Amino acid sequence: MHIPDGYLSPQTYVPLLGAFVSAAAVAVRKVRKDVSARNIPYLGMAAAFSFIIMMFNLPIPGGTTGHAVGSAVIAILFGPWAAMIAVSVALIIQALIFGDGGITAIGANCFNMAVFMPFIAYYTFKLFSGNPGSRKRVSFAAFFSGYVSLVLAAILTAVEFGIQPLIASSADGKALYCPYDLSIAIPAMALEHLLFFGIVEGIVTAIIVSYFLKNEPGLIFAFRKGVKNEIG
Amino acid sequence: MKLDKRQKKILFILLLLCLLTPLGILLPLFFNAGDAWGEWSAQTLKDLVGYVPEGLAKYSDVWKAPVADYTLNSGDSSAVHQSGFYIVSGLFGATVTYVVMLLISGLIVRNEK
Fold first, then answer.
1. Residue of B7, B37, B109 to mutate, interface with A, max A Cβ within 10 Å
2. What's residue A173's pLDDT?
3. What mean pLDDT is predicted for residues B93-102?
4. First-residue to last-residue Cα distance in chain B
5. How does the average pLDDT of chain A come out, rounded?
6. A42 reaches B (C-beta below 8 A)
7. Which pLDDT band holds residue B49 (cuts at 50, 70, 90)?
8. Which three-class secondary structure state does DSSP give residue A175?
9. B58 in contact with chain A, both atoms CB, cutoff 8 A
């Protein structure tokens, strides 16, 4: 899901960079208000976890590869705004040092995996988990939150890929950037994440959230009282 | 910054995960799986659609990453060597990410409660 350089037109990556930077500016204020200094070590570990989990490329036999992102579990445990910062740090380091994801696409990749995904994950979890419900219910909500958020982030990425042929083609009709249109990009990205990678993100999310629910329930941001859990 | 027992344990698990990262290159190799969708190189894309889109050709090499593709030598075809490079990249990248995130959170977070 790491869009490389050259796949997005400037008409796409510039607005997405703007959206990401604006969101990050809000995130700084939100994290300052809502996150306790005691959790700083955990935030470091969360970012490192996201970095590492994205290195586990999983194969679809004879086809493509993909991976979990970790945004869902980080959003549930530390809140969507903290997740935004943690996953962005991992993504920016991946792009700068390891060439994983383009430099021009940093805004797009951060928007998809570090802004959009944790918010979908967080509110999906809140919707299904009770406050908190039984352990089983919380695990299911965590699984579903990881699953849905990764699938939707993949579809958003596919839309960014798929609109490129509409935005820019040369005089002879050849695409200037990503050559695949929506009718190819969306089914390809949606299916592999619906059938496989989304399930992996779901399982990872459920395991870790269950671990913290059992051992350190007070830490879980999504269940904390007194924190304003609204976007505004 | 002092880590409690659980945090040390989690850090240790992260370290173990770094040592397991070669699964992320060996499994795709074993199951004959290629690039992620939309992450093809210009050359691979040419094989797929018959041409390299003009803008893509212009932008695809805009950045030379110091440790591109998490390997220290992309020409080395030994799976064992590549696994080693992958672990080193994982340890290095995860450590940098951890430290940068600690610094950023330290600057942002003011709330001691």
1. B37
2. 83
3. 98
4. 15
5. 94
6. yes
7. very high
8. strand
9. yes
- The CA distance from A94 to the nearest CA of chain B, in Å, is 8
- Are the beta carbons of A100 and B70 separated by less than 8 Å? yes
Residue A28 at interface with chain B, using a CB cutoff of 8 Å: yes
Q: What is the ipTM of this complex?
A: 0.96
Handedness of CA B68, B69, B75, B76 (dihedral sign): positive
* Separation between Cα atoms, residue A114 and residue A200, nearest integer Å: 18
Which residues, in sequence order, are bridge partners of residue A169? Answer: A175
Residue among A52, A63, A161 minimizing CB distance to B94: A52
In DSSP terms, A66 is beta-bridged to: A58
Can you give the length of chain B in residues?
Answer: 113
Count CA atoms closer than 13 A to A139's CA, side-chain side.
8
Does the pLDDT value for residue A117 go beyond 60? yes
pLDDT at A232: 38
- Strand stretches in A10-131, DSSP E: 58-59, 65-66
